[in-house]
UniProtKB/TrEMBL annotation:
GO terms for molecular function: hydroxymethylglutaryl-CoA reductase (NADPH) activity. Pfam families: HMG-CoA_red (PF00368). Pathway: Metabolic intermediate biosynthesis; (R)-mevalonate biosynthesis; (R)-mevalonate from acetyl-CoA: step 3/3. The lineage of its organism: Eukaryota, Viridiplantae, Streptophyta, Embryophyta, Tracheophyta. This is Hydroxymethylglutaryl-CoA reductase (NADPH). PANTHER family: 3-HYDROXY-3-METHYLGLUTARYL-COENZYME A REDUCTASE (PTHR10572). Gene3D superfamilies: 3-hydroxy-3-methylglutaryl-coenzyme A Reductase, Chain A, domain 2 (3.90.770.10), Hydroxymethylglutaryl-CoA reductase, class I/II, NAD/NADP-binding domain (3.30.70.420).
Length: 147
């Protein structure tokens, strides 16, 4: 028998794949926040953010056949952090798998935002990446809804 390779490419390293979305790869991290005073701080309202997230990030991504890309621009943030910290930028494919969820709470006054990233190819930087993605998602979505 000749060994021609150690890996059978099932891990799909550096390639977007359903297996990495479902089973995770590297670190699986969740970040969430409750944003109060949305109108004052973000210059938009909770219901507009929740509606945009549903239509753009969830429905739009589903119709497009997205593979773990149910977010506004997680890959931009992940890529920037990878470049800035000397990580392998090709790991951006699986590391950018992300779903952004938003819901109105406290009778619609406050926003609960949650970002789940199941396959970040980092160890110590994983929590920084997901926190940065949450902030970026909130910023972009607020800018879109504020006009």
């Amino acid at each position: 028998m000749d060994v021609i390779g150690i890996f059978g490419n099932y891990c799909l390293d550096k390639k977007p794949a359903a297996v990495n979305w479902i089973e995770g790869r590297g670190k699986s991290v969740v970040c969430e926040a409750i944003i109060k005073e949305v109108v004052q701080v973000l210059k938009t309202n909770v219901s507009a953010l929740v509606e945009l997230n549903m239509l753009k990030n969830l429905v739009g991504s589903t119709i497009a056949g997205a593979l773990g890309g149910f977010n506004a621009h997680a890959s931009n943030i992940v890529f920037a952090i990878f470049i800035a910290t000397g990580q392998d930028p090709a790991q951006n494919f699986e590391s950018s798998h992300c779903i952004t969820m938003m819901e109105a709470i406290n009778d619609g006054r406050d926003l609960h935002i949650l970002v789940t990233m199941p396959s970040i190819e980092l160890r110590l930087l994983a929590t920084i990446v997901v926190g940065s993605v949450l902030a970026g998602e909130l910023s972009l979505m607020s800018a879109i809804t504020a006009g």
